[in-house]
Amino acid sequence: MNEAETRAELIDPALKAAGWGVVPGSRIRREYAIAPGRIEGRGRRGKPLTADYVLDYRNTKLGVVEAKAEEEEVTEGVGQVKNYAGKLAVRHAYATNGRGIYAIDMQSGQESEIPAFPTPDELWALTFAEVNEWRDRFAAIPFEDKGGSHPGRYYQDIAVERVMQAIADKRLRILLTLATGTGKTFIAFQIAWKLFHSRWNLSRECQGSNQNQPPKVEMNQPLTLHRRNEHFNYKMLHSSALREFFGIEMLIYVNCLAGLFRPRLAGLWCPLICNVNLMSTICQPWFINRRYF
Asked: What separation in angstroms does the CA of 244 have from each of 13, 196, 248?
């Protein structure tokens, strides 16, 4: 069998048998586009970087799978899948020819053949050994991608996930270093989106009887984002989740000359600063210690 037949006849049934795409909250992303390809000049790009399978559970990428034809060696796709896992910052990678499965732990470096794909819950437990309530609550909130029409780039997803992990670990100072044009406003909005809908607050206390439902509050002032000549209006609600978010000292460090991202809500300036002027990103002590513009 060629690769397409191997995937349809052997690999897809194996993933389904492990519960992927069956267990609520699990999802198989086939032909997952990681990057459009290296720019070669004259309007041309190199070969796009595409993973055969990405395994999602609880809105979190947990594993990546590289498939090869049945007649190939089971380890034939190891180099490729390691590259994909490194790009996506995914801990567990798998190479398979449909007859065998070769597992790689990108964190510990352990590699071995396994009899079957792990279930979604097993892979979650392998990725996150320690229980963290806020990490699980943040993961329960999907990215706001306008119904799939505006998906985040892989490095944007990584930036948001690392910020959420830092907040779940009770870290109050967070520094993101981003290059020019990497979607700083998008990242800032996704962080605020997850914090608001998860009802996060500085006390780390769960609010309401149903933790998965956002608080019922009235629409207040719109959150206005100014970025160069663009003007965005997001209807964000005033709640303790956003108000308490003001206690986080967070700077998105960029190397560009641009304006400040200063959303104002209920008369307060949010210290989530994005698109910071280059002269202000020297990170002098007064800038870090809550003395915002």
From this structure: 47, 10, 8
Instruction: Quick: pLDDT tens for 63-101.
Output: 999 999 999 999 999 999 999 999 999 999 999 999 999
The token pair that represents 285 in the structure block: 């002590």
DSSP sequence for 208-232: SS-TTSPP-----S-EEEEETTEEE
Domains of the chain: 3-127 (3.90.1570.30), 133-288 (no CATH)
The pTM of this model reads 0.70
Write the pLDDT tens digit of every residue in 103-136. 999 999 999 999 999 999 999 999 998 888 899 9
pLDDT 10s digits, 211-241: 444 433 333 333 333 333 333 333 333 334 4
Task: Quote the CA–CA distance of 82 and 105 in Å, as a whole number.
Answer: 9
Instruction: Kindly state the tokens that stand for 81.
Output: 């899948």
| Spatial separation of the C-alpha atoms in residues 237 and 247, rounded to whole Å | 17
Asked whether the beta carbons of 62 and 123 are under 8 A apart, the reply is yes
Query: 220 and 263 in contact (C-beta within 8 Å)?
Result: no
Fill in the DSSP letter of residue 80: H
Residue that the structure tokens 């943040």 belong to: 138
Give the 3-state secondary structure of residue 268: strand
Cα 97 versus chain centre, distance: 29
The token duo for 219 is: 């629409």
Q: How far apart are CA 44 and CA 231, in angstroms?
A: 32
Distance CA 234, CA 221 (A): 10
| 10 neighbors 65 (Cβ within 8 angstroms) | no
What residues does 240 pair with on adjacent strands?
none
Are 59 and 142 a contacting pair, CB within 8 Å? yes
